[in-house]
Design brief:
This protein is an alpha+beta fold. It has helices at residues 46-55, 60-67, 110-114, 154-161, 163-182, 191-202, 204-213, 216-219, 224-232, 234-250; strands at residues 21-23, 68-73, 78-83, 96-97, 101-102, 117-124, 131-137, 151-153. A hairpin with a 4-residue loop joins strand 2 (68-73) and strand 3. The structure holds iron/sulfur cluster (2 copies).
């Protein structure tokens, strides 16, 4: 997830921790059912794309072409993708159904799972890999879920919505973004580096071909056990890609990517 600012009043949102509580419930019976699935801005995470394209039986290239809009993330100046909305009057999400709600509910994006929570990061401690996150409620006028009686701790909501695993996989992506944001504006990535970032994070099939069909494995001394794991498991390939980008952009974890000695 990314730093998100309050979408409502401009007043800084109250920062919440994992044990903080909030009152909310969302179900088919609320009068506003599916209102939050229209006219929205949903940034897709790398893990979202892995699961959504699998659900839709598409390649990552096809998924990107049909369901996403490319954007540039402010401050980080890195390419990201958002979910492409339908060109109808209500700017609907392509997966929303008036009566039944989300047609891909089990594989819905991370942002939809978090809602009505936002998450921000205060800092990233670099070498230790520690995050300093906070959460906040996004109270939009159309959302009547705050009038319901159910009380959640933030940690309970996260577990219920299945965001823990997603955040764990996406951590390497977040690290790349937060590190880039913390660099002075004069330190820019080359266009080639940005293309690499896009390929690894959003076009996993292309990255797989890059690793296994280019000279990548001739250049780097990658253990066979890792090669086997990333060949068989796209999540491991994605995490490997984040590590490679972090090593290439920011010189971290370079021991994983030792260049082979020439014979
Ligand atoms: S993906 Fe599902 S939950 Fe998310 S906006 Fe679309 S319909 Fe709503
Ligand atoms: S607007 Fe709020 S309460 Fe209504 S369906 Fe969306 S998340 Fe649930």
């Amino acid at each position: 997830m990314t730093d998100i600012e309050s979408k409502t009043s401009g007043i800084p949102p109250e920062q919440l921790g994992l044990n903080s509580k909030f009152k909310f419930n969302c179900h088919k019976g609320v009068k506003c059912f599916t209102k939050c699935c229209r006219g929205i801005d949903i940034m897709l995470t790398p893990y979202d794309i892995l699961t959504m394209r699998k659900k839709l039986d598409l390649t990552s290239e096809e998924f990107l072409a049909v369901f996403t809009d490319p954007q540039i993330l402010e401050k980080a100046e890195l390419p990201i993708v958002t979910l492409k909305l339908l060109d109808d009057e209500r700017k609907s999400c392509p997966f929303v159904e008036d009566k039944d709600g989300c047609a891909i509910y089990e594989d819905r994006p991370t942002t939809c799972r978090y809602y009505p929570l936002g998450v921000g990061s205060l800092s990233y401690s670099g070498e230790k890999g520690e995050k300093d996150e906070f959460f906040f409620t996004v109270k939009e006028d159309h959302c009547l879920g705050f009038e319901e009686d159910k009380v959640w701790a933030i940690s309970e909501w996260r577990e219920d919505q299945g965001v823990d695993l997603r955040d764990k996989v996406n951590d390497g992506w977040m690290e790349l973004i937060v590190r880039k944001k913390s660099l002075p504006p004069s330190m820019k990535l080359t266009e080639q580096s940005k293309k690499m970032f896009f390929m690894v994070c959003y076009n996993i099939d292309k990255f797989k071909a890059f690793v296994f069909k280019s000279s990548f494995l001739d250049k780097y001394d990658i253990p066979q056990v890792t090669v086997k794991a990333i060949k068989e498991d796209d999540i491991k390939l994605l995490e490997f890609g984040f590590e490679w980008l972090n090593a290439t952009f920011y010189s971290t974890g370079q021991e994983t990517f030792k260049v082979k000695e020439k014979k």
